[in-house]
DNA-binding response regulator
Amino acid sequence: MIKVLIIEDEILIAARLKKMIESIEPEMNVVEMIDSVKEAISYLSESIPDLIFLDINLSDDYCFKIFEEVNVTCPVIFVTAYSEYAIKAFEINSIDYLLKPISIQSLKKSIDKYKSLTTFPNYTKMMIDMESRYRNRFLVKLNNQLKSVSIDSIAYFFSEDKLTFVCLNDGKKLPLDFSLKKIEDEINPKEFFRVNKKFLISVNSIQEMYYVSKLKLKIILNPNFGSENIFVAVEKVGEFKSWLSK
């Protein structure tokens, strides 16, 4: 059976959606219906279903807060009355975006899409394609010389005086002709995280991390960056902690 979780704060809509899902696809079993971000975080911290139907505006917060607190690895189909959140939804694990009121036809298309994406070998191919699109190396120019730098040899990227640099695992710092935003878009997000406006770090570069106050999380990098204190942006702390647990 395909385990389905519905996260929806309107009880009647959730009940109707459950009935529609199970009538369209008998192999799908709605294991739980949840109506808040808090309850969703608690549930997903212990168990991950095969598929989530997720409303955006829940009873206590917007659903995106869930993804900052827990690592949701299963596909998500958003179910909402708000079309303006579509772009943000597809930045997550979303495979489709349904607008309320939901029709049988649109729901069936979403379920068929889920089945086609997760059918082996389609799902395996999709994951391989996603991994292969990430950059594996950078070409660095130093004076008149060119050097090819493997992504595996990079500890972190940083910006300084409107310029971008890469710090290698051996501590060597080299200039790059890319913005941090462009680099962030082209490298594997499983391996690197943008902790603040200045630093994009690999998971292996973290030597120490600790709270200096309730909301301020400090990081010590290896190779050491120097005397400057490096903090995770407050709004990214939850997402950063989730990234570390993947």
About this structure: Residues 146-244 form a domain with the OB fold (Dihydrolipoamide Acetyltransferase, E2P) fold (CATH 2.40.50.1020).
